Amino acid sequence: MPKAPVVALVGRPNVGKSSLFNRMVGERRAIVEAQPGTTRDRIYGEVEWDGRFFKLVDTGGLLPDDLLATLAPRETAEAVKRQVQLAIEEADVIVLVVDAEAGLTPWDAEIAEGLRTSGKPVVVAANKADTPDRRLAAVEFFALGLGEPLAVSALHGIGVGDLLDRVLQLLPAEGAEEGAEEEIRLAIVGRPNVGKSSLVNALLGEERVAVSPVPGTTRDVVDTPVEFEGRRILLLDTAGIRRRGRIEPGLERYAVLRAQRALERAHMALLMVDAGEGVVAQDAHIAGYVLEAHCSVIVLLNKWDLVPKDQRTDRLRQAQETLYFLSFAPFLPVSAKTGYHVGRILPLVVQVYDERRRRVPTAELNHLLREALQRHAPPTKPGKWVKFYYAAQVEVDPPTFVFFVNDPELVHFSYVRYLENQIRERYGFMGTPLKLVLKPRREKEG
Ligand code: GDP
């Protein structure tokens, strides 16, 4: 998972952190639905504002006020201190919530002192500024030495928009949040006897492929790390592939479970089919597992040496038609036995992976959206209108795009497919399934 920037709310008890949290996240705006039965859903929320996304943490939610009330004052102070410390460690931006009704307290000053020395960007939100008088009184929090305090009212939704604007200014630059390049986790899947173990052996036998001497784990899952032109690639569950050999009918179910488990851990899959036999229903079934796991995919038409030359065009077309829902994937004829095209596989893996990791800047995406809308206006029903406001890529792996529209129900799926094609035309994403999500637009408030 890519790391989204983190914004934390801190402050002494009863200043209104969780009300402000709810205002900032809002029901409608939560991108990731809360996991029922977990306490996390009260503490973490995803916020979208002006096309940027961040994770909001309510440190107060770690120890709610009603629980705090049962603690001795000293324990409460310690708990708040821990919350602040956690925020300093985890967050990119911190919102210090204070109470405009109660005014500045020594406790606020103490928390502010800790934040100042941390060097993290901080915004002071003077909450409960419900009236003009209290909004004016908020200036007193200048004394905290953390810049201009913003007067907000979580209760009435006043000033929340300005607060979000300020937070956005302080977030790390877009694209800066991606971590270092990681190893490519590659699953090799397919029906029994399509040639998976032959292919693994062929790949490992390649001159340009260095097999790392690091031994596998003692569990029955053994991955094989290889290095290819400076890139690290982990072939997942190769023990399962290599050991199997001829498979008993009763073991097939086990093989499926095993493949699914590998796909869950994988960025990418090589889906192997037996081109000698042609693509069959079970191949399509396994392709379904690949998509469920949001893996990128390359289809390998193995045993190409067995396909008579005059039937090759037809065989390729038959494969593409049967696996029509993988139209975004490359189909590569190979032969694990003769080595035909085996040398092309890993370069293609690297290319597909790199395209998968692409992040489309918000401005470019919205430019593309405007052009796409101009070229083809979204079809609509009589008396209704469809309006696209803007779009953002909210996740990198797997690539996820959110489009904000007035009413998602009105957008026909063929139009979503059109938008997907526009993205692919410009940015490729070869071999990678894209997630396109329509969301009702949230209005700016405050
Ligand atoms: P797995 O069950 O998917 O791991 O399949 P195997 O790698 O064990 O291969 C099954 C059979 O197909 C073996 O007899 C292989 O020799 C044969 N085989 C694998 N790849 C090729 C190929 O590209 N061409 C031909 N002609 N036979 C192949």
Question: Please, could you describe this protein's structure?
Answer:
There is one protein chain. By secondary structure, the chain is α/β, with parallel strands linked by helices. Helix content is 36%, strand content 20%. The chain is built from 15 helices and 16 strands. The chain has helices at residues 17-25, 40-43, 65-68, 73-90, 106-118, 132-137, 160-170, 196-204, 238-244, 252-265, 281-292, 312-322, 342-356, 362-375, 413-427; strands at 6-10, 44-49, 52-58, 93-99, 122-127, 150-151, 184-190, 209-211, 224-228, 231-235, 268-274, 296-302, 331-333, 388-395, 400-405, 435-440. The strands form 3 sheets. It has a 7-stranded mixed sheet with strand order 8-9-10-7-11-12-13, sandwiched between helices. The structure holds guanosine-5'-diphosphate (GDP). Guanosine-5'-diphosphate binds at residues 190, 192-198, 241, 244, 302-303, 305-306, 335-337.
